[in-house]
Automatic annotation (TrEMBL):
The lineage of its organism: Bacteria, Pseudomonadati, Pseudomonadota, Alphaproteobacteria, Rhodobacterales. Its cofactor is (6R)-5,10-methylene-5,6,7,8-tetrahydrofolate; FAD. This is Deoxyribodipyrimidine photo-lyase. GO terms for biological process: response to light stimulus. One of its GO terms (molecular function) is deoxyribodipyrimidine photo-lyase activity. Residues 1-127 form the Photolyase/cryptochrome alpha/beta domain. PANTHER family: CRYPTOCHROME, CRYPTOCHROME CIRCADIAN CLOCK 5 ISOFORM X1. Keywords: Chromophore, FAD, Flavoprotein, Lyase. Pfam families: DNA_photolyase (PF00875), FAD_binding_7 (PF03441). Binds 1 FAD per subunit. Its EC number is 4.1.99.3. FAD binds at Y220, T232, S233, A234, M235, S236, F267, D369, W370, D371.
Length: 469
């Protein structure tokens, strides 16, 4: 009987345990992507990027003699209907770890099993299943370094190669048309502005990884913090949709380390930050929605998204060039350098004392590498409310950070046009990207700081010291 391959955030053919198992089971394989409520809830940029990813994945499957079937509706109902229509005896998928997906998948599994349909989920979106990494006391890890130590020497299975062929059914079930889903509808700047920054699909992801390992990883230790330099892997975009697997990145990192390339060890550690985020999200799903440390509920956060300071932060008009450059990079490219993510997050949560969830939501709307676990951990880490967070009294100073990590101000010049004699094309492109409701122009004068760097820091520290927790 046919096997349904329920495709989710795993848009690749190689190192895909569920696909490999489906092919091994014998019989035709029917890949299907379901637009359910969780897809509808995605932020504008991740949803748009998903649409591109699905288009690319559909083409890759077609080239491999298969197809991608698209269906809409609650996953359980859609899968039950498909099983009935195709006579499938099994449904396989790659596991997800966020609480809503876990909840949905558990219900789907039960419903299918009740109908005597084999339902199996596989590892691959992470390397280390969250429940397999335990402290000596049998609990989960709350601090990164011991987590790293407990996994660094683990054997990660060699990535699976792509199946030589994917058996097709005689008749394909009906499919929606991707264009009718309008996944890019909320992303008006998508096609023109952000598209050039996208590297789409499995092949591009592999090339990106190869180029990084060949040309960049040796200098990664130094280059990764120089914000104007393209010195990191950029794999997060592809990891987000599973166009590449973390195990493929891990093994490439191991090979580079064995070849004596200096930064490879650091790259492996960074990949494990992603694993750590998934570990924490799985064990404490409140990471996504609540102050991980409940004592932070008593902190006098600004929670009103309509505050003019929040608007200025989103629009890259705080008057702090390093922060504004980052926010504009985010809006135009759908990405932001990691160091700058930390700085804009610190600025929002400390200098402006805004609740981290405001920033988390804006990032979710703008990032093409959006990842529920890494985004939540990054925000809670920056705000001080998370496990293993930066101590609250360590407030990033955006001015000294800029002197240190962008000493020639190349990054700032790349993104700030106002009051520059010859603004760069990228800085100007921001003004083409923004909506009409943001009446900004490169000819405007650059704003004065909305909050003085020193005063903002002091105000946040005072609030922290006077806290009643
Ligand atoms: P590289 O430096 O090449 O690192 C390799 C890989 O390691 C990355 O692709 C990523 O998968 C992983 N990694 C590196 N740093 C981290 C980290 N701090 N936490 C988790 N994984 C990491 N990352 C996302 O993928 N999606 C997000 O939505 C996201 N939101 C963030 C929000 C904030 C406030 C902060 C501070 C960080 C966030 N990060 C997020 C983590 C980090 O900024 C990005 O993973 C990194 O910038 C991606 O660039 P890269 O692929 O070139 O990374």
């Amino acid at each position: 009987s046919p096997t349904i391959l329920w495709v989710r955030r795993d848009l690749r053919l190689s190192d895909h345990a569920a696909l490999t198992a489906a092919v091994s089971r014998g019989g035709p394989v029917i890949p299907v992507f379901i637009r359910d409520g969780l897809v509808d809830e995605l932020g504008a940029a991740p949803k748009w990027r998903l649409g591109l990813g699905l288009e690319g994945y559909g083409e890759a499957l077609t080239e491999a003699g298969s197809r991608l079937i698209l269906r809409s509706g609650p996953a359980r109902e859609v899968l039950e209907e498909l099983v009935e229509q195709t006579g499938a005896g099994a449904v396989y998928w790659m596991r997800a770890y966020d609480p809503d997906s876990v909840d949905r998948d558990t219900r789907v599994k039960e419903a299918l099993k009740a109908k005597n349909v084999e339902a199996e989920s596989y590892t691959g979106h992470v390397m280390f299943e969250p429940w397999t990494v335990e402290t000596k006391q049998g609990g989960f890890y709350k601090v990164y370094t011991p987590f790293w130590k407990s996994v660094e020497t683990r054997e990660v299975p060699e990535p699976l190669s792509r199946p030589s062929s994917i058996p097709a059914p005689d008749n394909w079930p009906q499919s929606d048309h991707l264009d009718d889903w309008h996944l890019g509808a909320a992303m008006r700047r998508g096609a023109e502005v952000v598209r050039p920054y996208v590297q789409l699909g499995e092949q591009a992801a592999q090339t990106r990884l190869g180029v990084f390992m060949r040309d960049k990883v040796a200098d990664y230790n130094e280059a990764r913090d120089r914000v104007a330099v393209d010195g990191t892997s950029a794999m997060s975009e592809n990891l987000s949709l599973g166009e590449i697997s973390p195990a493929q990145c891990w093994h490439a990192g191991l090979r580079a380390r064995d070849a004596g390339k200096d930064g490879a060890g650091t790259f492996l550690k960074e990949l494990v930050w992603r694993e750590f985020a998934y570990h924490l999200m799985w064990h404490t799903p409140r990471l996504l929605t609540e102050n991980w440390r409940p004592e932070w509920d008593a902190f006098p956060w600004n929670e009103d998204e309509r505050l003019k300071e929040v608007k200025a932060w989103k629009q890259g008009r705080t008057g702090i060039p390093f922060v504004d450059a980052g926010m504009r990079e985010l809006y135009v490219t759908g990405r932001m350098h990691n160091r700058v993510r930390m700085i804009v997050a610190s600025y929002l949560t400390k200098h402006l004392m805004c609740h981290w969830s405001i920033g988390q939501k804006w990032f979710e709307d703008c990032l093409i590498d959006w990842d529920p676990a890494s985004n939540a951990l990054g925000w809670q880490w920056s705000a001080g409310s998370g496990p293993d967070a930066t101590p609250y009294f360590r407030v990033f100073n955006p001015v000294t950070q800029c002197q240190k990590f962008d000493p020639k101000r190349a990054y700032i010049d790349r993104w700030i046009a106002e009051e520059h004699e010859a603004p760069t094309d990228t800085a100007l492109s921001y003004f083409d990207a923004i909506p009409e409701s943001w009446p900004l122009s490169p000819d405007d004068s650059y704003p004065e700081p909305i909050v003085d760097v020193k005063e903002g820091r002091q105000k946040a520290l005072d609030a922290y010291q006077n806290r009643d927790f």
